[in-house]
Design brief:
With about 400 residues, this protein is an alpha+beta fold. It has two domains: about 200 residues, Ribosomal Protein S5, domain 2, CATH 3.30.230.10; about 180 residues, 2-Layer Sandwich (Alpha-Beta Plaits). Helices cover about 40% and strands about 20% of the residues. The strands form three sheets. The protein has a six-stranded mixed sheet with strand order 5-4-6-3-1-13, sandwiched between helices. The chain has a four-stranded antiparallel sheet with strand order 10-11-9-12. A three-stranded antiparallel sheet has the order 2-7-8, with helices on both faces. β10 and β11 form a beta hairpin. α10 packs across α11. It starts with a helix and ends with a strand. The mean pLDDT is about 95. The structure holds adenosine-5'-diphosphate and magnesium ion (MG). Adenosine-5'-diphosphate (ADP) binds next to β6 and α3.
C-alpha cells in the first residue's frame, strides 16, 4: 500500500478506492513569460504528489495531508475565494472549478502525500491540484485524462483553483506541465494559443555533436531552501509594470513586441518598464533558441541560454536573490555548461546542465558555497523528464 493510502485509512477511517499521482515540474527556460502569453519549456519531475481517494455520495470534502499533518472538512457549497483558507484551498478549488465548468462533481475523501518539496519553486501546488483533478476525473467519470485536449481542460480548472480560490495569481505553466508532459520530453507550451509540442529531452543518452562531450549529461536541480513567497505582492508588481508597458506600447501583451524592433520599443518606456520588457522579449526568444539547440543536440548552446536567462532574470526582471545567484555561480565554476534560477524566483530552486562526470563536483561546490555563508544547506538532486498525471492503482 502506498503511504498515501495507508495514511488515508488512519486519518479518514475508510479505504480509498484508488490512487492517483501528478508530478511537480521544473521549467528549463522561459521564466516569467507565461502571463505575457509567451513560451515556456518545462519538464515533469520524477517527484510526484500522490492522492488516495474515494468518491462520496454527498457534497462534503474531507482532505488529509501527510505534509500538513492535518485534516480539513468543507461542504462544496461553501467553497469560494479564500474559503477554505490555507493549503486545503488548492484541493477544494479543483472540485469548485470543475463544478463551475459544468461537471457533476460530488464530495470526495482525499489523502495527499508529496515527494515534491513544498514552496521550492518546483510546483507542489500544481502537483497537488492535478493529482486531485485526475482523481475527480476518474471517480466522477469526467473523461478528462483521455487526450491532450481534455487534459488541457482539466489544467484550466486547476489554474482556476489556484487563482480564484487559493488566491495565487500564477500563470498556466505548472498545471499544463503536470497534465501534459511526456516522459523523456520537455513540453513547449505557447501560453497564448495553448498549443503544445513535445521536445526530446534525454540527457543521459546524449552524445552531443556540438562538442559538449560524449559522457552524457544530467540536469541538477538545487532547492536553495530560501524563502519563496509569490503571494507577497512582488509577482503582482512585476505583472502590473509589464502590463502597463504593453499598454504604453499600444499592445495587448509583451508577446506582441517584435524582437527585431526591441530597442525602438524600449526607447518609448520608462527605465523600469524597459527592463521588464527586455526580459520578457529576450526570454521568449531564448525559448525558441533552446528548442532549436535541443533538437540539434547542441548542449553547449543550451547552457549559454541558461546563463543568459539567469542574467536577465537577475538584472532586468529582478526576481533572483543571493541564494539563487550563488548556487548558479558555484555550479558553473564546478563545470556546469550553464545554470539559472527556475520558477518564480525570490528563493526556490536553480537548475544546472552538467556533464555527468562533474555532477558530484557541482553538488559539492554548491553545498560548500552555502556552508561558507552560513546558509541552510541546499538540497540538490538530478532529474529526468517524467510522465504526466495518471492513475497509479
Ligand atoms: P510551489 O508550488 O513552488 O511548491 P507554492 O507556494 O505555489 O509553491 O505552493 C506551496 C503550497 O501548496 C504550500 O504552502 C501548501 O499550501 C500547498 N501544498 C502543496 N503540496 C501540499 C501538500 N502535499 N500538502 C499540503 N499542502 C500542500
Ligand atoms: Mg506553486
Amino acid at each position: 500500500m502506498t503511504r498515501a493510502a495507508d495514511a488515508h485509512v488512519r486519518a479518514l477511517e475508510a479505504p480509498p478506492t484508488g490512487v492517483w499521482s501528478a508530478p511537480g515540474r521544473v521549467n528549463l527556460i522561459g521564466e516569467h513569460t507565461d502571463y505575457h502569453g509567451g513560451l515556456v519549456l518545462p519538464i515533469a519531475l520524477p517527484q510526484r504528489t500522490t492522492a488516495a481517494c474515494a468518491a462520496r455520495d454527498d457534497d462534503r470534502l474531507r482532505v488529509h495531508s501527510v505534509q500538513a499533518g492535518e485534516t480539513v472538512e468543507v461542504d462544496l457549497a461553501d467553497v469560494g475565494p479564500g474559503r477554505p483558507s490555507g493549503w486545503a484551498a488548492y484541493v477544494a478549488g479543483v472540485l469548485w472549478a470543475l463544478r463551475e465548468d459544468g461537471f457533476a462533481v460530488r464530495g470526495l475523501d482525499v489523502t495527499v502525500d508529496s515527494e515534491v518539496p513544498l514552496g521550492a519553486g518546483l510546483s507542489s501546488s500544481a502537483a497537488l491540484e492535478c493529482a486531485v483533478g485526475a482523481a475527480a476525473s476518474d471517480l466522477f467519470g469526467l473523461g478528462l485524462l483521455e487526450d491532450d485536449a481534455s487534459r488541457a481542460r482539466l489544467a484550466r480548472a486547476c489554474i482556476r483553483a489556484e487563482n480564484d480560490i487559493a488566491g495565487a495569481m500564477t500563470g498556466g505553466m505548472d498545471q499544463s506541465a503536470s497534465l501534459l508532459c511526456r516522459e523523456g520530453h520537455a513540453l513547449l507550451l505557447d501560453c497564448r494559443s495553448g498549443e503544445t509540442s513535445h521536445v526530446p529531452f534525454d540527457l543521459a543518452g546524449h552524445h552531443a555533436p556540438g562538442g559538449a562531450g560524449t559522457g552524457g549529461h544530467v540536469l541538477v536541480v538545487t532547492d536553495t531552501r530560501a524563502a519563496h513567497a509569490l503571494n507577497d505582492g512582488q509577482y503582482e508588481a512585476r505583472r502590473r509594470v509589464s502590463e502597463a508597458a504593453a499598454a504604453a506600447l499600444g499592445l495587448v501583451s509583451l508577446r506582441d513586441v517584435d524582437p527585431h524592433h526591441l530597442d525602438d520599443a524600449l526607447s518609448r518606456l520608462d527605465d523600469e518598464q524597459a527592463r521588464r520588457t527586455r526580459h520578457v522579449v529576450t526570454e521568449i526568444a531564448r525559448v525558441r533558441a533552446a528548442v532549436e539547440a535541443l533538437e540539434a543536440g547542441d548542449l553547449r548552446a543550451v547552457g549559454r541560454l541558461f546563463d543568459a536567462s539567469h542574467a536577465s532574470l537577475r538584472d532586468d526582471y529582478e526576481v533572483s536573490c543571493d541564494e539563487l545567484d550563488v548556487s548558479v555561480e558555484a555550479a558553473r565554476s564546478a563545470g556546469a555548461l550553464g545554470a539559472r534560477m527556475t520558477g518564480g524566483g525570490f528563493g526556490g530552486s536553480s537548475i544546472a546542465l552538467v556533464p555527468a562526470r562533474s555532477a558530484e563536483d557541482v553538488v559539492a561546490a554548491v553545498a560548500e558555497a552555502f556552508a561558507e555563508r552560513g546558509w541552510t544547506p541546499p538540497r540538490s538532486f538530478t532529474v529526468t523528464a517524467g510522465r504526466a498525471a495518471a492513475r497509479d492503482s
